[in-house]
Design goal:
- The protein is of the alpha+beta class.
- The chain has 2 helices and 17 strands.
- The strands form 4 sheets. Strands 1, 4, 6, 8 and 9 form a 5-stranded mixed beta sheet that branches.
- Strand 11 and strand 12 form a beta hairpin.
- The longest helix has 37 residues.
- It is rod-shaped and about 135 Å long.
- The termini are far apart.
- 22% of the residues are buried.
- About 15% of the residues have low confidence.
């Protein structure tokens, strides 16, 4: 191979390498621009189904924070999100949710870069410059269930020590009966001396009767609700 041929080959190689560098810079610049655009325009969406799906609050935290409410069909959307890890937590008074929260990761940059590099090298739009293939995270769904805590009751009777049928006492009306403890309230006995506290959850309670001109035995009664109603919490009223 003569000197002239070697010089020509060297010039060709230099030109080829220069062109490759220019094309590479253009490709990378294009990828970076498109990647940034895609990374700041991603969405997370889903649906809350079950009880009270409308108006549930979905809180977004992590790479950014936001809050939205579900629409009439239980749908929600967060838009304009960049790459990163996000945590979504639903909430609504009177409801519990399954799952309690969901973590998702948006990572569109690498995919976009690969697409643009492929497009530029192939001279076409093979990868989809819009980035729609990785810009949406759909189907991040929750199920809402209405709270259905079971409640119980405590009931009894206040009996006067007078002479009723068969020499027994009879029910004393208009006695104020007070409930304290895990819940609180007050009621008055009926014409038959009966009283009832309803809507109580499990726990410890104290029932205390009172009426002017009377003393009561016992003075009060401590009761513990444990997944069943309590009946027959009775008091005897006597006059001094």
């Amino acid at each position: 191979m003569n000197t002239k041929t070697l010089n020509q080959n060297a010039k060709f190689l230099k030109l080829f390498l220069s062109s490759a560098v220019i094309i590479g810079i253009a490709v990378l610049a294009g990828c970076g621009l498109n990647s940034n655009q895609a990374n700041s325009n991603q969405t997370i969406s889903g649906t809350v189904s079950g009880a009270s799906s409308q108006g549930a609050t979905i809180a977004l935290s992590g790479a950014s924070t936001a809050t939205v409410k579900t629409d009439a069909n239980g749908n929600y959307t967060f838009s304009g999100l960049a790459n990163g890890t996000y945590n979504l937590t639903p909430g609504k008074s009177g409801c519990t949710f399954s799952p309690v929260n969901i973590t998702v990761t948006m990572n569109c940059g690498n995919m976009m870069t690969n697409n643009r590099m492929t497009n530029s090298m192939m001279g076409g739009q093979q990868g989809g410059d819009s980035g729609s293939s990785c810009s949406n995270m759909m189907g991040v769904n929750f199920t809402a269930t209405a709270n259905t805590d079971t409640t119980y009751s405590i009931s009894g009777m206040v009996i006067s020590s007078g002479t009723g049928m068969s020499g027994m006492g009879k029910g004393l009306t208009s006695v104020t009966v007070t409930l304290t403890g895990a819940g609180s309230g007050s009621t008055t006995t009926t014409a038959m001396g009966m009283y009832t506290f309803r809507g109580l959850t499990n726990g410890s309670y104290t029932i205390t009767p009172a009426k002017s001109g009377y003393t009561f035995t016992p003075i009060s009664s401590a009761q513990t609700l444990s997944s069943t109603d309590i009946i027959g919490v009775n008091f005897t009223a006597t006059t001094p």
